[in-house]
Write a structure and sequence with these properties.
With 149 residues, this protein is mainly alpha-helical. It is built from seven helices and two strands.
């Protein structure tokens, strides 16, 4: 068994490399995970995206370090990060240049498609998009209120 001695006692590091062992020991001493370190280093816009995905109001948690949040909020953020990571994988091999979204003007029928589904037939994704749009609008309003205050 390999272990590293800290002021709080020995920390088992298994068979990992010296660097990985040292980092694990430091994180245990500091009480902070890699996920928390990365989350805390995100820009406000990135944290807001994660908080929205976790269904947490960014205005109330944008400046709160991950480890200072409740266990429920931390779990929601963990799940949201996994979902966002999975979603980003769908775009890894897709070219994302401007030419991919800016092309000749589509025909009028594409601009104004006929609505053939009722509100009851909306997919779950459509409903979730409406929720995200509503939350985005609320955040924009809160930011504008802060700027004018």
């Amino acid at each position: 068994m390999h272990s590293v001695q800290t002021r709080d006692g020995a920390i088992d590091i298994g068979g990992r490399s010296n660097g990985a062992m040292a980092i694990a020991a430091m994180r245990k001493m500091l009480g902070k995970s890699s996920l928390a370190s990365i989350y805390d280093a995100l820009t406000e816009q990135q944290r807001a995206t994660v908080l929205y995905a976790a269904r947490i109001r960014p205005s109330s948690a944008i400046n709160t370090p991950l480890m200072a949040m409740s266990m429920d909020d931390r779990e929601a953020i963990r799940v949201a990060i996994i979902a966002l990571t999975d979603m980003s994988k769908a775009f890894l091999s897709v070219p994302c240049g401007r030419d991919q979204i800016i092309s000749q003007r589509p025909s009028n029928t594409l601009l104004h498609p006929k609505n053939t589904t009722s509100a009851n037939e909306q997919t779950l994704a459509d409903k979730q998009l409406l929720v995200i749009n509503k939350l985005t609008k609320e955040l924009a309003e809160e930011i504008n209120q802060r700027k004018t205050a």
